[in-house]
Specification:
heterodimer, A: mainly alpha, two-stranded antiparallel ribbon, 68% helix, 1% strand, B: mainly alpha, 14 helices, 0% strand, globular
Chain lengths: 277, 315
Amino acid sequence: MGPRLFGYRLTLGAWIGLVIVTVNLLGAALAPVIAPHGEADLVGDVWAPVSADAWLGLDNLGRDMFSRLLFGARTTIGLAFLITLLSFAIGILTGFAAAVVGGWLDMALSRFVDALMAIPQLIFALIILSVLGTSVPVLIGTIAVLDSTRVFRLCRAVGLNIAVLDFVEVARLRGESLWWVIRREVLPNALPPLITEFGLRFCFAFLFIASLSFLGLGIQPPYADWGSMVRDNAQAINFGGIGPLIPATAIAQLTIGVNLLVDWFLSLHSRDHKKGA
Amino acid sequence: MLKLVIRRLALGILTLWAVSILIFAGTEILPGDVASAILGQSRTPETVAALRQSLGLNRPAPVRYADWLYHFVQGDIGKSLANDRDIAPEIRERLGNTLFLAGVAACVAVPLSILLGLMAAIRQNSFFDRLVNALTLTSISVPEFFIGYILIIFFSVTFEWFPSLSMITDDMSLWDKLYAVALPATTLVLVVVAHMMRQTRAAVVNVLSSPFIEMAVLKGIPNWRIVLQHALPNALAPVISVIALNLAYLIVGVVVVEVVFVYPGMGQLMVDAVSKRDVPVVQTCGLIFASAYVGLNMLADLLGILSNPRLRYPK
């Protein structure tokens, strides 16, 4: 009998994932308390090496890398979470509506999603950002809408199997509204695959923001975020520093952590659902 | 079979058309206005109106769409908003560079991932299999630029074997060019191989568990013949489509990798154009990237049809 989460035994991988995710969330939540310096404070020389005061050295403007990493966690993780929530809200509503209503609505939504998915997401995001500019609301909206196409596909596929079951038909015969049917009959029965997908989509949104910020098109200075920290410190590498690797490692470890948890959750439910695209 | 192929080709062309509409709509119908975006903070209603007139933005959207597409397919892409030069020559050069980088990466990645995938599938659950599995899982979860910078630190800063900036020009010899793109191509290979070999392994493992393989084992056929003659031909269809789909993945990876290594390719051009809000350049690059993506997806399906006898000779 080992320690358990949601009543299930934790594997080694799940343990590592859980620890990584917890540490990250704590770091983000307690950033103002833990961080020795402010987010945009200049505390010393450019690219000063590691010292007792600056645990990870200073960045390209002489700001404390460790403090910025903590504040960056807030921005990057927070935004990725918000984007994933939004894309799920859109994807679940449209996907289940397509499954329950069927007919022309399903047809129209599916064809529209097909067309959207025919363009690589990064490319489409770049096109939209070139017109709307790179502000935080635009970023959230763009990535959420592009990402909701995947959620739509999954929800529609799962929803189609549930929508033909007797209790859904009964609810419809009772004259329940579309919203009620989705919320009370379809959603609870589709939860396990959706939770797994949430983890995967979170990783995706997280990497997506990081990549966009790295390209200089994401979160704009002076706010710290892991992707733009990589970009800001890229030059350090030519002087023998490891500047960009620190935030890049931060990005990598969180993605691996979440993936490990998702893998564990997937193995628990592998018998009653198939992995969505 | 011909009917299937034609249907798939028609679907591909339809998709391309839909994509071109989406890209056009994305830049035209959204609330942002191109004219005020170009002028930025210093705009006045008069200058916006004048610019709209000179860009032809006052015509109805469908007319502008038809006009844009008509010129695009003829190779006349129009002028950059940033410096008012013709885009076509620069795009042509950049596209060549990007294709070179992606091509080098593909030439290494495809045979390598098939080989690794086959080996992992044969030695299923062995130490080698687990090692490869763990490594690929890691490389799938980390961003492209992480791999890129690690390579730079090792191979260009510590050992000084390869340049960290990949500059290539037309007058370089093929060997010099290959040397220049060594690191970016390796980054792309590492990213793509992970995906390709995982799926190759899955496809071969799937076939290896079927009854006719068991029969072959019982007959006493050596292992390598079972894999090469019995398993591989049957796993070919999924493997081919996996490869084509991952080549499509190269298209997105190339954008980030080009920026890491300051490579003069189309991804870099597109990113620069987005920050300058140079809409025509972004539109063009977007349409080229998207067409390549759609084309590779279509190729994956076509090869899938051709390599599957059941689809080749439908009942």
